[in-house]
Write a structure and sequence with these properties.
It contains 20 helices and 5 strands. It has 496 residues and is mainly alpha-helical. It has 2 domains: 370 residues, no CATH class; 112 residues, no CATH class. 48% of the residues are buried.
Length: 496
């Protein structure tokens, strides 16, 4: 159908046009944790070692796949260009999934749903706050696994699910969700081994390498983030914040809107489940975009529930994105289900639900666009961290270890200096020891004693005591939060 091709081209232009301003703004966004992964990419490209600190085989990145993908760009364009490249690739993944949805449409209904979902997805401000992180790559791979399963390409769906795990551990949910949707759609179970085989083709080689190199295929970061949640090191847990805002605060700080969108998502998932069950008995199947939105809803709820059970710290805002996206697009899911259901008089009872869904979509869009702001590390704080990195590079000529409160940006721009991370992400040893001892020790007293033999100690909020043998070597003043003093400590000359 020629009109459908022209319509898809028009939707593509509209999507790219709406995304370009956000893309331009998000290029400058910085998330400190992302730079931990960038340092892995740097060391892999420049030294051939998949380590944060050279020679220390610790898997401190939640996304080894992102590090592997970014490593060639370090060689081609240099370390300074990598953050902007990572942000661009992140947003490109976001757009690629939406274009896939639009161009996979086979009729006007699928086109309308795909266009609505794609454009609404790409103009959601919160989608860009994680630019440079693994989140958009994870969602692209998850969407690819679900859409390929819907198109009966099960082995490739399994490969995408395996890659989703390497993008972030909770991406492993892509495998059972894609298989579950396949089964509920009335497909034969005997073919599911192909999904498992595709996943194994990715995961078995990775597990063999990671066990030999790191001692485990799982990142140490989950244990650390669970510990920080249990000890309330940074504040509330993910469960406490979800309960306070009745949903992810990343979507909206209005509890009533979060609760309504969560209710619409629940209605949509229940309705999709009923239609898929009828499909097993000869009913009509769902369009690809509704497969994706239903799978995303299950993924967002399951992932959030798992992190709540594990008591993961609530300040890692990128973990809210799958659930926030599913809730944000829930009106499209419900409206699409109403559109795809037989429009008899009996089914007109769903018209008010579809109207409510459209109202919520508009309310959510208008309510969130003014909040299009960058993460806290964007701008002055990132600039201050780069100044500190330059200072350490210039003064720590013997390349002695440096203790950091945040190991991302500073560690990336001082790549040759070994880093001890007070938060335990790249130095999980002391945190894991505290977990085994079931004690809350922050910072551990033995750490201060060990640091007497190190060159610099940088600590935000927990400065080492003067009696421990430290002095302030340099103080950096950032305009972040109206003026924030960042001290760099060095061992004093006196003993003790």
């Amino acid at each position: 159908m020629a009109w459908l091709r022209w319509a898809k081209a028009a939707a593509t232009c509209a999507l790219l046009g709406l995304t370009t301003p956000a893309w331009h703004t998000a290029l400058s966004y910085r998330v400190d944790d992302a730079f931990i992964t960038y340092r892995y990419a740097y060391n892999l490209a420049m030294h051939g070692q998949f380590d944060y600190n050279l020679g220390q085989h610790v898997l401190a990145t939640t996304s080894p796949l992102t590090a592997l993908l970014l490593a060639p760009f370090v060689r081609l364009f240099g370390a300074d260009a990598l953050p902007g490249i990572a942000n661009s690739l992140s947003i490109a993944c976001l757009c690629a999934l939406q274009l896939w949805i639009i161009w996979s449409a086979r009729d006007w209904r699928q086109y309308a749903l795909g266009t609505a979902a794609g454009i609404l997805w790409c103009v959601g401000w919160f989608e860009y706050t994680t630019a440079g992180m693994e989140t958009d790559l994870l969602l692209l791979l998850f969407g690819a696994a679900v859409l390929l399963a819907e198109n009966r390409r099960l082995w490739l769906a399994g490969v995408m699910a395996g890659l989703a795990f390497l993008a972030r551990g909770d991406g492993a949910l892509a495998l059972p969700i894609a298989a579950g949707l396949w089964w509920m759609d009335g497909r034969r179970l005997r073919h599911l081994w192909r999904i498992a085989a595709g996943g194994a083709a990715v995961l078995v080689p990775w597990a063999a390498f990671a066990w030999a190199y790191f001692g485990s295929p799982l990142p140490d970061t989950l244990a650390v983030k669970t510990f920080t949640g249990e000890t309330r090191m940074f504040g509330a847990t993910m469960w406490q914040l979800l309960k306070q805002y009745r949903g992810p605060f990343l979507l909206t700080a209005q509890p009533w809107l979060n609760l309504l969108l969560l209710a619409v998502l629940a209605v949509g998932l229940a309705w999709a489940g009923i239609l898929l069950w009828r499909r097993r008995r000869g009913g009509e199947g769902l369009p690809s975009v509704l497969w994706l939105l239903a799978g995303l809803g299950v993924y967002g709820l399951a992932q959030s529930a798992a992190y709540c059970v594990l008591r993961v710290d609530g300040n890692y805002f990128w973990y809210y994105v799958p659930l926030a996206t599913a809730m944000y697009l829930a009106p499209v899911l419900v409206g699409g289900l109403a559109l795809c259901s037989p429009l008899t008089l009996r089914d007109l009872r769903w018209v008010p639900v579809a109207a409510l869904a459209a109202t919520l979509a508009v309310a959510g869009l208008l309510g969130n666009r003014p909040q299009f702001i960058g993460p806290q590390w964007t701008g002055p704080l990132a600039a201050s961290y780069r100044q500190i990195a330059a200072y350490l590079e210039a003064h720590d000529r013997q390349r002695q270890p440096v203790a950091l409160g945040e190991a991302g940006i500073i560690g990336y721009y001082a790549p040759d200096i070994p880093v001890f991370d007070y938060f335990g992400v790249v130095s999980p040893g002391w945190v894991l020891a505290a977990i085994r001892a079931r004690e809350i020790v922050y910072p551990p007293p033995t750490l201060l004693a060990d640091l007497r033999h190190e060159r610099f100690a940088f600590v935000v909020g927990w400065p080492p005591a003067e009696s421990a043998g430290y002095r302030i070597a340099r103080r950096f003043v950032s305009s972040y939060m109206g003026g924030w003093s960042i001290p760099v400590y060095a061992p004093s000359q006196r003993k003790g």
